[in-house]
Design brief:
single chain, 178 residues, mainly alpha, two-stranded antiparallel ribbon
Amino acid sequence: MDHQDVRRDEEIRHRRKIPERITHNDTKFNNFGVLNNNPAAPTGASQQWYDWIYKRVTENVSYDKIIEGVVTGVSRVPGESYAEFCDYMTKAVKGDANYADRPDMPYYWARRDFNKPEERAIGFAYAFLGIRIQCAQCHKHPFDQWSKSDFDDFRNFFPFDRRPNNVGTIFPATAARA
């Protein structure tokens, strides 16, 4: 490595530690479509979401690992009983525990606008794939890649209907494939 490459690497390491850069990247990540100005729950959950992301950005966790923690997020960690989970969450809400220390963030899937599989597919495609697929629910645009059949297949990755009285309901197309 020559002198210029060494200076560049030093500058990159320095800039990664600047608090403004961390805050900027954290805010950008939170706003790019994951939260979409629609928090999963009241302000406490939004703050936990923000703290969880902020911790990972400050620790320079790669984006693929952050996304993995969001997409595969579950409420309880492996081996944690329901009572232990409730105790931890009570402490987190009171401020006696730091939710950011949890390994993943399940709040993405708890959003109010993610009750139906269609909503989950549209939100996921926009937030994590950077594409809008709403129109493909009904029809295919002449110059669009997504057909209605493609949308239906993609929707089936998110099979559960979480509306009240439909908890655990699997879409007929998904049940037929199972």
